[in-house]
Amino acid sequence: MYRFDEIKGYEEVIQHFQNAIKLNKISHAYIIEGEGGKGKKRLANTYAKVMQCQAHGIEACDACRSCHSYDSGNHPDVIHIRASKKTGIGVDDIREQVNKDVFIKPYVYDYKIYIIHEAEKMTIQAQNALLKTLEEPPIHVRFILLATHTHTFLSTILSRCVVIRLRALSQTCIEDYLEKDLGVPDYQAKLYASFARGNMGRALALRHSESFHEMRKDMIQVMTALSNNDKVEAMAQVEVFEKYKDEKQDFLDLMLTWLRDLMVIKSLGDLEPLIHMDNKNLLLKQVPYLSYNRISSLIEGIEQIRKYDRLHINFTLLVEVMLIQAMNSK
Ligand SMILES: [Zn+2]
C-alpha cells in the first residue's frame, strides 16, 4: 500500500529519505510541511514503513512481517498522535503519549516512530514538552511531524527537525497521473490539473466535486452571454460573479482556462489540445463573436480584479468595470 515508487512527484524528497536510510543517517525528527491534499501523510507513512521494513532496503519489500502489519494499519512500533477537535494537541497529550512512552523499547522492530498529525496545532506547552524529548531522544526513537505551516512552531523545535517543504507539483505531473494511472480522459485530466494549483489531492477531489461542475456550468453561461454582444445581458452576469464572491479566485481561474481555449482556437485552430474539449463545439461557436481585443480585455480585467482584491476594493464594482471594458472593446 505504501511505496515510494507509487508516489507521484516529490522525487527529491524521496531521494532524501532513501539516502538517509541507505547511509544510516535517519534524522531523529522531521517536519513535513504542506497544505492539505499534498500528500504529507502518504510520504510519512511510506518513510516509516520503509524504515521498519525487515529487508532493510530503500523501498518497502511488502513481504516481511513489518510491511504486512503496516499495511493492515496496526504496526506496533509506529504511533500516531492526533489533535483533538477542540483543544488541538495539548501538553498532556505529549506527556502521556510521547514523553512517558519513548523510553519503552520498540516491541518488535528497529525503531519506534511517532507520527504527529496536524502538529501545527500543538500548544506552546505541548511543544515545550516535546522539546525535552527532542533534545535528548532515545536512540531508537524517530519523529515525523506533519504540518500545514510551520509559523506556529517554536524556533527551538524547528532547529531540531529536518524541515521538508512540499512544493507544488507540475501540471504535467498531475495530468499524467490522472490520465495514465487513473484512466481519466485526457481533456478532463487537463482541466483538473490546470485547476489543482500543484496539489494532487485537490485534483482528485475535483473529479467528484459537484460544486466544481456547477461552477463550470455557470462560467460557461457567463462566457456565452459575453459572446452574444448584448450589453444588457452581459452586465446581468454580475449576479453570477456575486454568487462566487467567496470563491472568486477559483471562478476567475476557471474563466481564464476558457479564455485560454478561445485564444488557442483563434491562433492555432482546434488542433491543440483544449482544456474544455468536451465543450469544443460551443467554443468554436463563440470564437467568431469574441475578438482578440475582447478576450485580452477580459484577461486584463481578471488580473486587475486580483490585484485590487488585495486592496479590498469592492468586488462587484471591479466585475462591472471589467464587463464594461470588455463590451466596449471591438
Ligand atoms: Zn518489508
TrEMBL record:
An example Gene Ontology molecular-function term: DNA-directed DNA polymerase activity
Superkingdom, natural source: Bacteria
Organism annotation: Petrocella atlantisensis
Family annotation (Pfam families): DNA_pol3_delta2
Protein name per UniProt: DNA polymerase III subunit delta
PANTHER family: DNA POLYMERASE III SUBUNIT DELTA, REPLICATION FACTOR C / DNA POLYMERASE III GAMMA-TAU SUBUNIT
Coiled-coil region(s): none
GO BP: any one term: DNA-templated DNA replication
InterPro entries xref list: DNA_pol_HolB, DNA_Rep/Repair_Clamp_Loader, P-loop_NTPase
